[in-house]
Amino acid sequence: MNIASWLDRAALRWPGRPALMHGMAVEADYAGFRARAAALGSWLRGRGIGPGDRVAIFMRNCPEYLIALFGCWYAGAIAVPINAKLHAREASWIIDNSGAPLCFTTPGLEAGIDGVECVDPTGAAFLAALAPARGGAPSLPPDAIAWLFYTSGTTGRPKGVCITHGMLTAMSLTYTVDVDSVHTDDAAYYAAPMSHGSGLYSPVHVLHGAAHLCPVSGGFDPAELLETAAAHRSLSMFMAPTMVHRLTAYARAHGGTGAGIRTIVYGGGPMYRADIEAALDVFGPKFVQIYGQGECPMAITALPRGVVADRGDPDWARRIASVGQPQSAVEVRICDEEGRPVPRGEMGEIMVRGLPVMPGYWQNPEANARTVRDGWLLTGDIGSMDAQGYVALKDRSKDVIISGGNNIYPREVEEALLTHPGVAEACVVGRVSQLRGEDVVAYVVPAPDAVLSKANLNRHCMERMARFKRPKHYRFVQCLPKNAYGKVLKMEIRQRESGIE
After folding, report:
1. What pairs with residue 378 in β-bridges?
2. What is the pLDDT of residues 422-453, one digit of tens each?
3. How many Å apart are CA 423 and CA 457, to the nearest integer?
4. Domains annotated on the chain, with CATH
5. How high is the pLDDT of residue 154?
6. For the chain, which terminus, N or C, has the lower number of CB atoms within 10 Å?
7. Phi and psi dihedrals of 296, rounded to 5?
8. Any idea what the Cα angle at residue 417 is, between residues 412 and 419, rounded to 5°?
9. What distance in Å separates the CA atoms of residue 48 and residue 67, rounded to the nearest whole number?
């Protein structure tokens, strides 16, 4: 099963429907999209790149990104998407690790990429010069690798997750069962990097003949998004929680309602209750939460829009604090350190097994042995599952703070801090303490014009949690360090703490 065959089918069924858009301008219908991607695949094969070979994609968000991605699959090759915000040295390491002989780039990104041929597929002349392809997407077994997904590497060198065509198929089909429906009048809006979650949702939108809309800015701009949504009238997109926070703040400040936004799927980091409540107040029932990892992309659990929006449900507060119930193609269980399931409601490591789970990392048997056990993926996340099957995600196992023999989950402390009107952002980490083992340290970004102090934040926390959980130290900062995907770099903050007396 080659996922590119879905583009063959879409081009036959909806040849004239808009497929690739740059802002509101249509750059290709489905027949044109298919022709360009297939021609690029034929060009790759003509250069000796075929099944099993890797091709890097180090590009900013643009319509040609999808031509390059599907072009790799038309060649039977493995795509290696790399976030365009990475430094050239980081991108070069990924290219070298994957063994890709060629890298598609957008202008300016090729600088600093050495030892590999760089090709810019965004020029009209390049695509026009490609010879038309004969035949459709080549047949591949479902366990053939489609995508090498490199993890963010916040704790060391990134690992390449082997995502197969079968995994993409399972993930895409469960999207329409557990996450959201897709219609031909919809458009997938690529505000988040196409190298990760946003791009992983492109196949299901191809399958249903929806448009693919890349913003002219090439990224996330709240004003541009709201204006485009109002013009198109049916946008769906993936966002990190930090993006939802920024979009909500902008809409509130400028009177925006999000008209034309159909669905925002959020995941990839903690969504705090205060943020989702504010987003619902501004935009209404447009939100779906998913929980996944590169090792089981976008497909571990889902919290559908009806549950997210139903604040009249007496269990709403508990359910909105969860990441939802297991998606249809996986089993999820909570286990102790020996891999034994724990009783409902108790904490343990979240483990998942099913069709969207990776077969392993790229050329990394040591990491495979640590991460996959008897077909079960050890996520490294700590959580619990209630009687209704809702999974509460507490923290990464490495993030848990042990102070005075008590387990403290940073997210719980962050949630409490964020209910203070003067706190814009918060990040909680542990700091070595000779007395208690670890102390709780809170990095706090004050809201504009807010005046904060340790005393008033302590009072605020003491009203909401046990005394032993409250931070012992506060660091007031202008911003939190984040990676290219908007995730807070807790490792960097921990490293700062290791040097603080």
Report:
1. 351
2. 999 999 999 888 777 789 999 999 999 999 99
3. 9
4. 400-498 (3.30.300.30)
5. 42
6. C
7. -145, 75
8. 100
9. 19
